[in-house]
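Private note to self, pasted from the team thread so I don't lose it. Backbone tokens:
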């Protein structure tokens, strides 16, 4: 018995995605750290989450025929999917670094993204994504996930929109 690749469609140019993609990329520059940005998927279904991500990253990399991921981070995924007419090979590894996904272009350029858990707290997820995507980030994945965000980077919280909402302001002890 043969199985067909998972078929998924991305919104056409005139359609808006149902939810905005939760992605932050480092500015285009020489890579200095372990990740090139961060992605906060809405589920652990890699085959369902990837098409929108691949469509956005195609602007930077072109066609992306290969994605590698850690098997423990995602639900069972097929070996390949079709996204925007491109056959994408999904390579899951037990030894792949946790909390990351690699997207490899046809010319072998690569983007490594920190992957936040779908159920993460929005405020914490925003801070972590901003840290992972900051210019000159040379932190390891563990450092990005563990370290607090410097105060100068939290000013972008006001611009963070998620499904039409915003991250609630932090209340000081005096306000409580």
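Design output:
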């Amino acid at each position: 018995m043969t199985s067909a690749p998972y078929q998924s469609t991305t919104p056409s140019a005139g359609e808006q995605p149902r939810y905005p993609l939760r992605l932050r990329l480092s500015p285009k520059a020489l890579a200095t750290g372990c990740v090139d940005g961060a992605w906060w998927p809405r589920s652990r279904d890699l085959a369902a989450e990837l098409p929108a991500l691949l469509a956005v990253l195609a602007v930077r990399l072109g066609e992306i025929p290969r994605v590698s991921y850690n098997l423990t981070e995602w639900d069972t995924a097929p070996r390949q999917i079709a996204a925007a007419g491109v056959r994408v090979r999904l390579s899951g590894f037990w030894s792949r670094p946790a909390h990351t996904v690699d997207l490899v272009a046809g010319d072998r350029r690569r983007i490594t993204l920190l992957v936040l858990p779908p159920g993460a707290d929005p405020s914490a997820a925003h801070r972590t994504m901003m840290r992972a995507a900051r210019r000159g980030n040379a932190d390891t994945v563990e450092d990005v996930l563990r370290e607090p965000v410097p105060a100068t980077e939290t000013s972008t919280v006001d611009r963070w929109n998620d499904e039409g909402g915003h991250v609630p302001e932090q209340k000081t002890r005096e306000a409580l």
